[in-house]
Specification:
3 domains; three-stranded antiparallel sheet; globular; Solute carrier family 45, member 1/2/4; sucrose:proton symporter activity; membrane; transmembrane; transport
Length: 461
Amino acid sequence: MTGGAFFAPAAENDEEYEMGPVGEAHAVQWIGTAGVKGPKWARLPLLTVGMLGIQCVWSIEMGYASPYLLELGLSKSFMSLVFMAGPLSGLIVQPLVGIFADRSRSPLGRRRPFMLAGCLICVSAMMLLGWSREVAAIFGGGQWLAIALAVWAIYCIDFSINAVMSTDRALVVDTLPPREQEEGSAWAGRMFGFGSVAGFFVGNLDLAPVLPFLGKTQLQILSFLTSAVLMVTHSFTSWAVSERVLLRDDRPQTKSSLKSNLKSIWENMFSLPPGIRTVCIVQFFASLGWFPILFFTTVWVSEIYKASVPSDGIDPATFDSRAVRSGARALLLQALVNIVTSIGLPFLVAESGVQPSENVVGYEPIEGNANQGIGLGIANGNGDGHGPQARVETPPNSALWKRTREDLENGTFFRRLLHSFQGMVNHAKKGEWGIPIKGLTLVRVWWISQFVFAAAMAGSW
């Protein structure tokens, strides 16, 4: 491999053993090393850039599939059944792809064959969605054949893109060492955010006059562009990533793996701890409210546009296109708010109430009196207060920690301000940039967000 890489802690010819249920050992043999080509600064973007292509596909489907189905003549009630494809595909496809990929012995690795196959299926389905009316006309079909082809295309898109998404996420885990996986997940989140903004921004533009050679309608042009982005981004990832290749797998084949996984999910639903169960219940009802946001925002905004903007002297097709683009513009604003919030909130959220119970020990040079300052650090060393010593931070909620906090709260405003500034400087020295708001914990942010969402939904009436 050229260009350097992140390497998994595996030898080039590696044999592992997994113990069976009755104590027998099953050999699993690998060849090669897992890594990412390119300069260090480009490795994580190359590994996760496929997420950008995936989110572009979701953005176009969310923004344009609903108006297109209504234009073909499908009712809104049936349209809701069509978009069951999203959660249904996530429930079925991701475990199934994981099972087959884990056993794959392809020379390309375990993930990339499924990733590239899913991309090809998704591209074909995107083309069929954009040109479903024309394909139906070729076969002499009418409106209902066009609707059937469009619905089939949406199901193919959702099922294939879920397969691609599962392999993209698995590549992050398979390729990066554990210490890099958190940063890899952060980059994946950034790519999802950028893809959402890019997809809705392009969907907001009037592309038909600019790119008439790509299609006659906005959806046709967007289908072509989105397909190109999906293939290009995953081509970069496929080129940059090297996987370990499975040569030998003596583990017994289980024909009921998918059934066992689904059964395990069902059983775990009723054995969750009370706190997690409460969170899941809240998320369940929040998802019921979020579902119409995903697929009906464009329809709702376009209907408001048609009711409030005069259409005198405007071609009906042009007016409808403007209305749909207004819905895409609303989703663009939503994507911008989402990416700004996801990037900015972590800098404002204070630590939660859960604190470590043991002392944190680190080694750092301490100059002068070891116990000077505000009393939040105690140095243990040779006793002279100079040179490298072991620094033990006072554990939170200890007597000294509580007394120090009381002194600060009862002190002057200038002292509290100085302490806050000193805390910001200490965080900056550690590379932890942030201005946490006192009392704004992650739990409270989640709680507030539910009320804001409910109020916004009520305001849509």
